[in-house]
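Could you please consider the sequence and fold appended to this message?
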Amino acid sequence: MKRNFLKNTVIGITIALMSTNLISCSALFPVEEAALKPPLVKQSSIKYSTTKVERGDVEISSDGSARSEGTLSVKLSFTDISGRVCFINNTPGSVIKAGDIVAELDNAFIKKSLEQANINLKKAEINYEELKKNGAVAPNIDIDIAQTKLDQQRIALKELEQQIGSSTNEQDKCNLQLARLSYDKAKAEYERLVKLSGQQDSKLRLAQLDVEQQKLEVSKFENELKNTILKSPVNGTIKDSKSFSIGDSVSAGEMVCLIEDSSTIKIVARVNPSDMPDLKDGNEVILKYKDKEYPARAKELKENFNDADKPNFIFVPNDKIPDLQPSESITFRLIKAKHTNVLRLSKNAVVIPLGDNSGTATVSVLEDNVVVEKQVVLDLIGATFVEIKAGLNEGDRVVIR
């Protein structure tokens, strides 16, 4: 008992000494500062990209491609002349207007000949006008006066002959002789004027014929010059052409290019029935050209159904499409179903489980900057919008996924 007491006393003293040493050693370490509380960080508000539930149209549609074609093609060639090319504008695909020059042959000699012919014509016209101006033709009034004088002398001579009769009076004979001389003189003057009129008429006629001849020369060279310039007779697009360079020879009748007439355009498409089985004859489609839409009616070409190289549909627009040229690409949209003025939401804000045909979907609605998951009921599901039947109200903001 006494032994145990001593043992416990030793242990107690040892522990006390160790504690004293530890306390004294602690003074050798730096005093630990009081721990700081973590700073309060104000959480920044999260910004979401949202879209709004609104009223509008929702449609289910299929898209396809079409092209424009000219129903009339015009082959251009130099029909009456051959020569060497001095200008060419026949690049396939180029839009061209009626009257635009497609090609031109070397015509320098014809131009010079035409210039000379115009000079000759001007000379002939001046000569003709001068003859008329200078009185080359005896005025009709002069001939009429001469005719009147001749008639007067004839009557006077006849009356004098009747009066004198067979008189042998010398004075009577002398008067009769003077009357006859006056008559002969009037007759000679009349005949002279008539003859002169005929001569001058001939000169004027020759001058007139010269003018007509020079006009024909001018017309001939104008036609020759016209034949060396090949112009488009229609508005359209160059569909095909033969390659020519400056200086190349072109034969009469050789095709230069083929132009599709844009005044009579049809819009055609080759539609695979397996890709768009709902497209039928008479369906309404929406054509899109240069970011504008045009309603049209589909017309099926059943005769081309089995020929993959030919179009099997023509689309007839309700109204003319402005500025449409042949060989242009056009998209069309076949509307399968359409609901108007319904609640709709952008499709990229809706989560539709893969393979789920229940008509429900999940959306994330932003309410007081808090995102709330909601279930909605859908109707039409289009390419851009979905129709909301229940679960959302107009004006709700939904987070875009």
Observations:
- The two ends are 84 Å apart (CA to CA).
- The first strand starts at residue 50 and ends at 52.
